[in-house]
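Help needed: design a sequence for this.
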């Protein structure tokens, strides 16, 4: 079931950012910090935890095994990692669940992922995907509540696309048209603009 089409580039970019740059960012925190030894020790400890999380995540997704073993390994990591990598693991688990047409499991994985991170871009991505999954389960009210938490300007068009789909699922054609129109006019609409234009044309026709 293709519920993630419009966000694939965003999740790849965020995932690659954390996996490839996590260690460098952590090191930069130490380089840029002066002050008392206790503060430096604390920061060093945080950097070590971040590095360990990055390595553990890479191990979880690259270790060989059967699909069931790989999923179990990722589930264990996501449960234990209370950081951005735990959230990304939740995204991975949700994707696997969607591929298996298990939307309740995907919803659960994404809901848990939200509790793992304070990164606003990552939270916006997770909420966008969660709303898509809720729409896939014919839960438009839940989707509308979830997408309302998407705040980043870069996600404005995607959020309106989701709102339009949810309102249309509720039978609110006018509301859907308004949401799609707002989305098309949003800054940085990109490829989703043509998707919403197509939907508008269909509704008008």
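Sure. Designed sequence:
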């Amino acid at each position: 079931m293709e519920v993630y089409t419009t966000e694939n580039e965003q999740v790849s970019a965020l995932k690659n950012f954390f996996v490839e740059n996590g260690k460098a960012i952590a090191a930069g925190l130490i380089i840029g910090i002066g002050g008392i030894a206790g503060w430096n020790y604390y920061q060093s400890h945080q950097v070590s935890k971040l590095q360990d999380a990055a390595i553990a995540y890479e191990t979880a997704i690259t270790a060989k095994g059967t699909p069931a073993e790989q999923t179990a390994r990722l589930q264990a990591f996501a449960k234990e990692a209370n950081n951005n990598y735990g959230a990304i693991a939740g995204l991975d688990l949700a994707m696997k669940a969607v591929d298996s047409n298990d939307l309740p499991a995907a919803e659960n994985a994404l809901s848990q992922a939200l509790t793992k991170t304070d990164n606003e871009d990552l939270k916006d991505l997770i909420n966008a995907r969660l709303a898509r999954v809720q729409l896939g389960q014919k839960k438009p009210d839940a989707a509308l509540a979830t997408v309302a938490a998407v705040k980043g300007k870069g996600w404005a068009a995607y959020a309106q696309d989701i709102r339009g789909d949810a309102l249309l699922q509720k039978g609110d054609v006018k509301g859907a048209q308004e949401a799609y129109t707002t989305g098309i006019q949003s800054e940085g609409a990109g490829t989703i603009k043509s998707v919403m234009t197509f939907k508008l044309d269909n509704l008008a026709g």
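Confidence is low (pLDDT under 50) at residues 1-6, 20-47.
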